[in-house]
Amino acid sequence: MSWKSLDPKNWRGTLKFRLVKYYVGVFTVLWIVSMLLVYNSQRLFQLQSAKKALFNLATECQFELICHKEGPVDAIAIPISNIPNSCMAKLQNALKGFVPYAAYHDMNESQYLLAGFHEGSSLLVTCNAPNGEILSVEQGHNLEYLEFLRGEFNEEPYGQGQNSMLLILAEKNGKLLTSSSFDSAFLPLVEELFRQDGPMQGYRRVSNGKKSLLFFISELFDGNLLLVAQNMESYDANLRHLLAIFCCSMLVFIIVGICLAFWVAQNFSDGLAQISQTALEIARGHYDRRVDSNSRGTEIEPLIQAFNNMADNTEKMLKELENVTDDIAHDLRTPLTRMQARAELELASHGNVDFAASIAENCDEMLSTINTMLEITRIEKRVSHVSLTPVNVNALLEKLHEAFLTISEDRNIQFNLLLPQNGMTIYGNPRQLEQMAANLIDNAIKYTRDGGSVNVMLENKDNNLVLSVSDTGIGISPKDISRVYDRFFRGDASRSTPGNGLGLSMVKAIVESMGGHVTVESTQGVGSMFVVTLPLAPPKAG
Question: Does some domain include residue 401?
Answer without folding.
Answer: yes
